[in-house]
Design a protein that fits this description.
Two copies of one chain form a homodimer. Chain A is built from eleven helices and eleven strands. By secondary structure, chain A is an alpha/beta fold. The radius of gyration of chain A is 32 Å and the shape is rod-shaped. Chains A and B meet through strand 1 and helix 4 of A and helix 4 of B. Chain B binds a DNA duplex through helix 3.
Chain lengths: 303, 303
Amino acid sequence: MKVTLRQLKVFESVASHSSYTRAAEELHLTQPAVSMQIKQLEGNIGLPLFERLGKKIYLTEAGKELYGYSSSISRQLNEIEEILENMKGLARGRLRVSVASTANYFTTRLLAGFSKLHTGVTVVLDVTNRAGLLTQLANNETDLVIMGQPPQELDLVTTAFMENPLVVIAPLNHPLATENQIPFVRLQDETFVVREPGSGTRIAMERYFSERGARLTTGMEMTSNEAIKQAVEAGLGLGIVSIHTLELELETGRLTVLDARAFPILRHWYIVHRQGKRLSPIAQAFKIFVLEEATSMASKTLN
Amino acid sequence: MKVTLRQLKVFESVASHSSYTRAAEELHLTQPAVSMQIKQLEGNIGLPLFERLGKKIYLTEAGKELYGYSSSISRQLNEIEEILENMKGLARGRLRVSVASTANYFTTRLLAGFSKLHTGVTVVLDVTNRAGLLTQLANNETDLVIMGQPPQELDLVTTAFMENPLVVIAPLNHPLATENQIPFVRLQDETFVVREPGSGTRIAMERYFSERGARLTTGMEMTSNEAIKQAVEAGLGLGIVSIHTLELELETGRLTVLDARAFPILRHWYIVHRQGKRLSPIAQAFKIFVLEEATSMASKTLN
DNA sequence: CAATACCATAAGTATTTACTTATGGTAAAA
DNA sequence: TTTTACCATAAGTAAATACTTATGGTATTG
């Protein structure tokens, strides 16, 4: 029996329409082409598959049996096709990741690791502020977002994958720099250089202070963490930033982390996408990769 | 994707041996032939299926996925092949028989005998009235029909296989019950409980009476032979039914067959299918079986 | 290092495939 | 009765298929 898939496909079409002519139309063929395929199939099998009574054709018993199997086979072919198509997606494709500016300090490392595993995947990284992330999520302009506290307004799937401790920074020559276990009340009198309103860090700071019944005294407002750090270094006030942004500054001794009692503020990094979004295979792979890598990353960057 | 079964077969062989060369041997091919088939398959799919590490080849992820589906598909092809092979014989299959309600009394016995001979054949028996039989024939919903007088309108192949005598029945206490050689004129004055118009028995009765220039006096109309018999037993009139329906009633003495001169009306049972219908091997076997069994059946049920 | 075992690639080819157009037959519908 | 709707069959054809033989490259193995 050397049945071909072509024959089965034509057979299915004929069976489903109960008509050679309809099948021919569906398959963009002439009617004789269909007749021939069926005839060959019947020849291969050794049994008639259709019987003609007047104008109408009917499946024979054998035809009915074959139809069941044939449908099942083509369904399986479709399945495997889809599976393989998705795997192809992993081999090459594009991944769009957007990260909060604060997160930029470690996401580059994550992406580098992922890229090495999946050469052929083009990674597009966009670093923007919280508001930018939200519009990107809303407009489906990105596959995955990495950010601090995600908003509750949008329907989002958020997964925490790493701690995000916010610490108080000061220039080396600041009076508090050498003290230990600084009580929270001492910080109330200090001026803080802050991020713009709406920024994740700014929101966290304000909530933190108000929870303790304290008033946050704000100095200059900066739109980036880099600017904050430079301002603090220049003596314009204290700052509160994610510890992940401080690697270089701590190493080179430009800034110091105050040993304040109520700190660090413990927050988390989240990997985020909109509910209902169909993640591409690459995106899924990246999400899993991030969750798996988070632990080891954390230990490296936090020690 | 225009994967061929050939490609899948070669792929399976290679995968199961983890070797192109072995596969070539198994398939009685040269090694390059195998290489080409695999290469084409990979081309169709768009993914590598094997990877080569030194001398050995391994299935890739995609290859493993495909292998599962491929095995399943060829298993199904084997299954259907076997099924169809069996259908070519008589070992398996389905037989759809529809019978007139009157015929039901003896066809069950026929079918039982046939089933015993051909275990594995599923018999579907549908008992319906004359009109139902005709639509089933028209719509090719049945393989064979057993009925009394077949209609001439449709193109049918009809074969008489057994006599079908219609007799007059009466309750035991009926005045005519004890008489012999009752002349036809005596019956004209009697009221008859009859089947619905269009029923085979009703048609036969009416023709029979009109052929003799007599008027049929009808009482109640019943839609089944069982109802007729009960009505007759209850004294609502005489009845005319096939003798095949009377086995139990005669044995238990609830009814009697009148010894009327013009009776029994001799009709026949026919086995029927539409002209041009391709009878399955099973259906052919059943038809032959019926024709052969008819004689012995007749002697048993008619004595 | 040489031999060996494997797979890849190239070139060539007989056969098969999958159609097409043209035409004919038949049952049902008008 | 004529027309219509369907399927079967025949003849012809460009393209694809499924091989073959010959050869080359590359790890492992002895």
